[in-house]
């Protein structure tokens, strides 16, 4: 087994919980279109691109629109979402994340971001986390959505390591599959029922040690 040289982190649900802001913005859009959008509905949008998310939302509301209108609505949702994330503070970093980053730095392990979010840089700046990352790959750098491994493979490439030397941290099933498809090891953050394909599943970063990553 290759030695771990790099850790690649998804953003939403792993480093910070932006899902609540996505949900508020999507629900607001659904309400404008005349239907409700529940938290259960929102689960279907985890790790999915913006336009695919909109298609799912419209399917839930049984609404059909042309491409031009869909693009306008996606832009409107993003504008609402941006208003929320521009008010974020470092207090919103999930528990244990910053301490774990410090442990990785002290061990000489490189850190990359592998996120589908096109707003990743804005979020990292708001959280004052940018300096922890040696490479950042977000939705502006990739064309294929998870479970395609493109976002993680680009992160490994930017860091200069083979996939076998990297561990991915993910909270969504599609993300875990993307890591495995890219021949990387994966730690699932959340529930074993959802993330059972990961090499290791933990509830969060509090108390996570390097020894646990030796698999």
TrEMBL record:
Active-site residues are 10, 12
Q: Which GO terms describe its biological process?
A: carbohydrate metabolic process
Task: Identify the Gene3D superfamilies for this entry.
Answer: HAD superfamily/HAD-like, Putative phosphatase, domain 2
Identification of the protein by name: Beta-phosphoglucomutase
Give the cofactor note text: Binds 2 magnesium ions per subunit.
Can you state which reaction this protein catalyses?
A: beta-D-glucose 1-phosphate = beta-D-glucose 6-phosphate
Q: Which family does the record assign?
A: Belongs to the HAD-like hydrolase superfamily. CbbY/CbbZ/Gph/YieH family.
